[in-house]
Amino acid sequence: MSRPRFLPDNFTLALIAAVLLASVLPAQGRGATWFDGLTTLAIALLFFLHGAKLSRQAILAGIGHWRLHALVFAATFVMFPVFGLLLKPLLLPLVTPQLYTGVLYLCVLPATVQSAIAFTSIARGNVAAAVCSASGSTLLGVFISPLLVNLIVLPHGGASSSLHSIEKILLQLFVPFIAGHLLRPWTGGWIGRNTSALSLVDRGSILLVVYTAFSAAVIEGLWKQMPLIALAGLLVVCAVILGLALVSTTFAARRFGFSKADEITIVFCGSKKSLASGIPMAKVLFPAQAVGAIVLPLMLFHQMQLMVCAVIAQRYARQGQEAAPGG
Q1: Which domain CATH number covers 116?
Q2: Which residues make Cβ contacts (< 8 Å) with residue 206, sequence separation at least 6?
Q3: Against a cut of 0.70, is the pTM above it?
Q4: Average pLDDT over every residue of 21-50
C-alpha cells in the first residue's frame, strides 16, 4: 500500500511525537538536568558526523563557481532576513510576538545540506556546486547566524552577547565539525558503510533537542500562552516567506544568466533553511524556556519546504526530460 501524499515523512511524524511527549511528560528536575547534558553530547556528535560526511573532493569540485555561491549566500543571509523584517508589520498580527521571534530566527539560519543536494540531484541540477554551496552555508552559519540573531532577532543583546554566542557555537558545534572532517581519512569509509545507522544518530540527536526544548517551554506555560489561531497564522507566515524565497531565487538566477542546472542549485540551496543546524544552535543561543516557541516556526517551515520542493524538483526533472534529445 502506497503512502498517502498528504502524510508527512517519518521524521516529521517523529518530531510531532517528541513535541507531544514533551507536552504530556516534560523532563523536570534531575531528569531535565540529565537530558540537558545528554543533549549537549548528542549535538556535538551530530556536528562531528556532519564534518565527517563532508567530502573534500566535492568542495574542490564546486568551489570555483563563486558567482553561484555568492548568490546563494546572499539569499540565505541577506534576502531572508530582509523579508523577515520588511514583512513584520504585515505578518506579526497573524502570530504571537514570541512566534515571530522564531520566524526571524529561521530567517537568519544557514541552508540545509542533505535535502538541498537531494532535490538538486532529482531535478538534474549542478550537484557538485550544491554540495559546496550548502556545506559552505553551514560553515558560514556558525559565525553569521549568531551575529544576525543579535542584530535582528534580539537587537538588544549587545556585542558582548554576540561574542559569547559565537564562542559557545565554536566550542559546541564548530570544533566537533572540524574534528569530524579532519578525521574523515580514517572514518570516511566506515561512515560510508553505515549511513543508515548514522542517520538514526543524526535524527535521534535532533529529536532529543526538540524533546528537551519543548519540555522546558511546556513547564513555562508554552501552550497556555499559544492561541490556536496563532498556529494557523504561522502556516500562512511560513508559506508567504517560502513562496517569496522560491520566486526571488528563481528570478535572480535567470536575471543573472545562469544555466538551467545552476538555476536549480540556486533555487534549492537559496530557499531552504536547516533544521539540523537551527535546532541545536537555538539551544545555545536562547534561554531554555524560550527555545520551544522559537524553533516551532522552523519545524513547520522545514516540513513545508520539503513538500513544496519535492513537487518543484519533479517539475524540473520533467522539463529536463522533455528538453533532452529524443525526450
Answers
A1: 1.20.1530.20
A2: 15, 46, 275, 276, 279, 280
A3: yes
A4: 82
